[in-house]
Amino acid sequence: MIYLDHNATTPIDDEVKNVMVDAFSLFGNPSSGHTIGRAAKAVVDNARKQVADLIGADPPEIIFTSGGTESNNLAIIGTAYKHQKGHIITSVIEHPAALNPVKWLETKGFEAAYLPVDSNGRVSPEDVKKAIRKDTFLITIMHSNNETGVLQPIREIGMIAREYGITFHSDAAQSVGKMEVGIIDLSVDMLTVVSHKFYGPKGVGALYVRNGIDVMPLMFGAGHERGIRPGTENVIGIVGIGKACETAGCNMPFRYDHTIKLRDKLFSLLRNELDVKLNGHETLRLPNTLNVSVKGVKGNDLVEKLKDSVAFSAGSACHSGTCKPSPVLKAMGLSDEDALSSIRLSVGKDNTPDEIRTASEMIIACVKELKNKR
User: Which of 33, 71, 190, 361 is least enclosed by beta carbons within 10 angstroms?
Assistant: First the structure.
């Protein structure tokens, strides 16, 4: 099996796995004052520093969570709780883990603006500025899109948010660990980090909360994680995300260059044999992500036919035999036909040129076979 679905999840890196195995012996509660508890607290503190170092934050600004969904909910709803009413700015292409909390807040009396994107899948900073109202208290725009990999103008949006004194959150689940992401350069107040997107364990994530930013907890208990996220820390998972951040930081230049070369090679091979259209910005996207529409076939049919040989994702969701085109691709102006024919191929650090060549050959052959059956 050739794995080209790294935006869905990644395999755990061996170095990460090893430190997690070692952490099983640290069974103490990090809140306990005795030696066993302090040993557990020491590795949690070290992991906090590892996460902070990767994005250029201070360790106390890192709040450990159960993953991206919790981090996004904590950032969005936790900020809203501080205001009780008001206006939120987001975009139509956000992950459901950000869109759905905003939609839920609308049922509680909050109001929201859902900004469009252009044909390249990018939000306009000018649209952000125009959408600001006197009662706007939060802007939440993703750093990169999970389907297309398109990078958003976060720095420009962050500067606008600072100018108007509005809290700014960015979901960087797909970006951190794949490319350089620095909170100072981006001017964000909160940033979502997800372990399993860059060779760490599932079920653990982090939320960067800038010093001075108030976030209400979504759960109530003891004073863990600055009182923002109560509950005894998941020591083993936290050790894993910490090591994943450390190895990502040490290997970032190789990972970036390696994946961008494989991504572009894959596109070139497919384009030479098939009628394919790139979905998203040609250059302003994640180094590992390729979303294309393959004329004449449905993406889900390709995924199904190749499920035992090449792992990748389709751009449309199918339930009970009915396929719905991706809202992200529709927002970019794609027709239903092009959206339904889209596939997402996301390469990783361990993929090889030979795998890319073989995978492209399999996809090309499958497309031709499906077309011949029509």
Answer: 33
Q: Are residues 208 and 256 in the same domain?
A: no
Buried b (16+ CB within 10 A) or exposed e, 200-226: bbbbbbbbbbbeebebebbeeeeebbe
Cβ atoms of 208 and 228 closer than 8 Å:
no
Q: Name the residues annotated as catalytic.
A: 318
Q: Could you give the 3-state DSSP secondary structure of residue 44?
A: helix
DSSP-derived pairing of the beta strands 87-91 and 136-140: parallel
What's the rounded Cα separation, in Å, for the pair 367 and 342? 12
| Region 138-153 average pLDDT | 98
Same domain, 234 and 300: no
Amino acid at 232: T
Find, among 169, 156, 146, 183, the residue nearest to 5 by Cα: 146
Q: What are the distances in angstroms from CA 40 to CA 66, 245, 246? A: 18, 19, 19
Q: Domain range holding 346?
A: 2-8+252-372
Helix axes 96-106, 68-83, angle to 10 degrees: 30
Q: How far apart are CA 14 and CA 11, in angstroms?
A: 9
